[in-house]
Amino acid sequence: MNASIRRTLLLWLSLGITIGIALAALLVYMQAREQADDLFDYQMKQMVASLPIPTIDTANREFEPEQQEDIVIQMWDNNGLRIYRSHPNTNLPQRTELGFTDVVASGATWRVYSAQIGNALVQAAQPLSAREAVAAQMALRTTGPLLLLLPVLALLIWLTVGKSLSKVVDVASEVGKRDAESLDPISEHAIPEEILPLTSALNGLLARLGTAINLQRMFVADAAHELKTPLTALKLQLQLARRAQSEADRTSAFDDLNKGIERSSHLVQQLLTLARQEPGAVELVKAEFNIAALVRSTIAEFAGMANNKNIDLGFIGAEELSMTGDASRIRTMLDNLIDNAIRYSPAYGKVDVALAAADEKILLTVSDQGPGIPEEDLQRVYDRFYRVPGSESQGSGLGLAIVKQIADQHAAAITIINTHPGLTVTIQF
After folding, report:
1. Domain that holds residue 60
2. Does 175 reside within a domain?
């Protein structure tokens, strides 16, 4: 069950106020008790000092001092004979110790003051419960109004918290009314400071979603356009193969058809690869692996393609070199770099793949002897479906876009330079 912020705040604030009132009442009680002790002690001393001392003959007849219900007065002569007791039903022991003492008698604790006045010992006693009652009354009178205010404070807290949280309800209502196309930022006008981080985070998420959706739409539109042309070409090549009058024409048409199928297959494969590299499409799994072994195995896979063009494909680097990253994506990066290098290199050319470590960095370099890229186009080669004008190779225009995507995922830097002839691509991990 989800907890209510309003009820939680009301509960804890009310509990805190109640504890505060209780502590205040305890403090007031302790102060009042201390003051009551001082006051009653002074009262007992003055009472004892002002009492007339009766004789044995007059104690039971003429001597009747003013009494207080909670104070017991007793007197003894020099012989220890009690000559007066104000409360006959209360038995307190005779105290030979002068001054104030606490005595337990008759099931209660008494504050006793004893003094020698003339030839008589006078004792005044008061139960401590009387003092505690006075202190409790003072504490109750002081904190009672606060307890009466507690329901009013609870109502005020309930209304104030509800009004403050109404903005959360407004934001939730605004978000709930939106559909998948409504990605405009949520208005932050009059939003409380405590809620502002939430709305800011939501607006950031909406902005990222908008960017991702726009990129996806562009990707789908570009993919549809790029697929339309090769599919149309395949259809025309198939028609030419059907209309061929001679075996030579038919063979030529089927060769063109086969090349068109290979180009279309490569394009679809690149589209799928690029889609898998989109942020969030597939989880990036980083682990330590031997990149030198990965590079050598990738080069071995392209040996057949290089041999078909009589291209010298070689590797320069250490036998063992480890790094941390997603090995499958690094392999995809290598596939595209080596594939591009072989495609754009002329027959009997040379492609070198180098791997080196320096200053806690790993440098992966792929060099070819192709025509290179015009300087003004070096920054555009990362764009999807971009092909260098006048290029003889029938690439998909996605290879370097995939490489850039994977490099960004690994915080790697890409450098492309023309080497005349040829092109060198360096990835710095």
Report:
1. 5-135
2. no
